[in-house]
Amino acid sequence: MEAGKYKYEVLQKYIEDSIAAGTLASGDRVPSENELARMFETSHITARRALSELVNKGKIYRIKGKGSFVSERKKQGDDLVFRCLMALDAQHDFSLLQMIQGAKQYFDAKGVGFQLDLVQADTRHHLDYLFALAESKSAGVMLWPIEPDQYIDAFYRLQEKGIPFVLLDRRTYSLQTNYSGSDNTAGAYMQVQHLAGLGHKRMAFIGQDPSLNTEKERASGFQLAVSDLLPGEQCYLFYASANVESEILPLIRSGEVTALVCVNDRTAVDCLGKLAQSGISVPEDVSIIGFDDWEPARYTQPALTTIRQDFPEIGCQAAKLLWNSARHKGRGVKTVLQSVSLVVRESTAQPR
C-alpha cells in the first residue's frame, strides 16, 4: 500500500488514473466491487467505499442492476450548472421526486452540476424566483410550472438572456418551449378503452382544473375515445366545482353512469371516499379508473386501476433536452412524450 494512503484511496486512485490515461473512457464500465476486492486483495467494504467516493466526486455514476460507469469528462473551463425549479407541493410530491431523480441521474452521467431549488407552491413566488434565475449564470433551467400560462413573461426573459429551459409534465401552448411529459391524450383514450372492453357504455370524466393543458389533453382523449368506441352514447364531464353527492351520485344510482374516468389518482381516491360514505360500492355499483399510478392509490380499498406514467424517464428526457439546448443553442425547441401503460387492479369490473 502507498505510504500515507488508506486502502480505499489506493483503489480510488487506480480508477482515477485509468480514467486520466484513457484506459477507462466516458461510459465505460468500472470494475465492480467484487472485481476490485479480488484485484487488490481487500474487503468488499473497502471496494464499496472507493466506488462511493468516486460517485461523490462525479467521476463515475451508478445504474441499478448494471454497475458503475465513467462519467462524461468535462472540457477545460466547462463548469455547467443546471437548475431545477420545483414547487413544494404535497399533492405531487411523489411524481416530482421521481422526475428529479431521473434528471439527476442523467446529469450525474454527464458529470455536470445539478441544483434543485424548492419554492413555495404559489405562482407569484415561483415567478419571482424564475425571474431571478434569468439573471443568474445557470446553464439551463427545468421547471414544473404551477399555472404554465401565467409564466409567459418569465419564459420570454429566459429566452432574452439566452438561458435554455424545459417544462416538466405541464406545458403551455402560448409559446413554443422544450417540453417533457406523458402522452395524456393516449392515456385518457386508454382509460375509456379499458372500461369499454369491460362492457361500460355510460361514463363520466371527473377533472379538477380545466385551465391546465394537461387536463385539457386528458379530457380530449376521453371524448375522442367515447366518439370512436361508443358512438351515440352520452358522456359527462365534471370538474372540481361539481358536487359528487348532488350531481354525480344520482347518475350512478339511476344507471346513467356506470364508470368514472378520473383525471388523476388523487381525484379518484377522493371519489372512492365520497362514494363509500354514500353507500356506493366500487366496482359493484360503479367502476373507477385513475391516472398517474400515485403511490397511495395502490393501497386503497379497492386498489385503484390506473394509467401509469414513467416519471423518472420524463425527468431524464427533460435533462437530455436541457443538455442538448445548452450545448447547441439556436437549434429550436422539442417536445418529448413518454408512453403510458394501463395498470389493472380492483376498482374496475363489468357493469351489472
TrEMBL record:
Keywords: DNA-binding, Transcription, Transcription regulation. PROSITE patterns: HTH_GNTR. CDD domains: PBP1_LacI_sugar_binding-like (cd06267), WHTH_GntR (cd07377). GO terms for molecular function: DNA-binding transcription factor activity; transcription cis-regulatory region binding. It comes from the Bacteria. Residues 5-73 form the HTH gntR-type domain. The keyword DNA-binding applies. PANTHER family: HTH-TYPE TRANSCRIPTIONAL REGULATOR GALS, LACI-RELATED TRANSCRIPTIONAL REPRESSOR. This is GntR family transcriptional regulator.
